[in-house]
Amino acid sequence: MPEVAAGAIPSPNIWNTPHIYEIENRAVDPDARIYDAMAAIRPTEGATVLDIGCGTGYHLPFYSRTATRVIGVEPHAGLASLAERRCAGLPNVAIRVGTAQSVPVPDGSVDVACARWAYFFGPGCEPGLAELDRVVRRGGAAFVLDVDATRGPYGRWFRRWLTSYDPERVARFWTRKGWSRTELTIRWAFPTRKDLEAVLRIEFPAKIAEGFLAEVNGTEFDYAANLWWRRF
Ligand SMILES: C[S@@+](CC[C@H](N)C(=O)[O-])C[C@H]1O[C@@H](n2cnc3c(N)ncnc32)[C@H](O)[C@@H]1O
Questions:
Q1: Cβ of 44 below 6 Å from ligand 1
Q2: Whose CA is nearest to atom 17 of ligand 1?
Q3: Is the beta carbon of 76 within 6 A of some atom in ligand 1?
Q4: Which residue ranges of the chain lie beneath pLDDT 50?
């Protein structure tokens, strides 16, 4: 098996430094606004939940509390192994190596599909959307969480870094595809300044990270996110 399945989008933050991405995951959204917003749209009680691009499976134990079945799909075999290890004691969780473009689950077998900062970044993700059409059954819902680069300090730095990124074009893409948006402002709150610095340094090139760090006081900042979602 290749180390990374064909079609994977390089994700140096978690591929190269999963231990720092773990710090990031722990810091992101301590108020659980993302989980709450998703649950308000489509609860996971008794559901089959699919987490596409699950990385090291950080969110799978949470879904496993209410869902009947949880499937994490991840193209990076090493990360998939870490997810397996994390969920070893959870009998309702399975991890599969695969991609959003070729999801290794049967047709109409999923109630809630979600992707957090993974593959579904707007134009170009049509093959993954076709797979959602195939795997999510009627009554289900799909969620895509991504940065809102038009708002907040992180969005500003994101645009400074990826100057070609056009948030309006991305928003038009989702709207045209029939998806709705819930705008969220969440906190990224770290136990120490050292942790915050380590995380910003895996998210941005050095110069951008240092500029951002010069603006952030203390150990937390606000982060604007778009939760895109669609019912099936
Ligand atoms: C920024 S990480 C987020 C990981 C996880 N969703 C989380 O929140 O902890 C992006 C993940 O998407 C995965 N990925 C990259 N290309 C993908 C694809 N084509 N299909 C599914 N996942 C993909 C990467 O391997 C990586 O694990």
A1: no
A2: 8
A3: yes
A4: 1
Q: Which domains does the chain have, with CATH numbers?
A: 12-24+41-149+165-185+224-231 (3.40.50.150)
**Which residues lie across from 43 on neighbouring strands?**
none
Q: What is the pLDDT of residue 129?
A: 98
74 Cα–ligand 1 center, Å: 6
Q: Ligand 1 pocket test: pick from 3, 4, 14, 19 the residue with the most ligand atoms within 8 Å of its Cβ.
A: 14
Q: Is 117 in the pocket of ligand 1 (CB under 6 A)?
A: yes
Whole-structure pTM value: 0.97
pLDDT at 2: 55
- Report the amino acid identity of residue 52: I
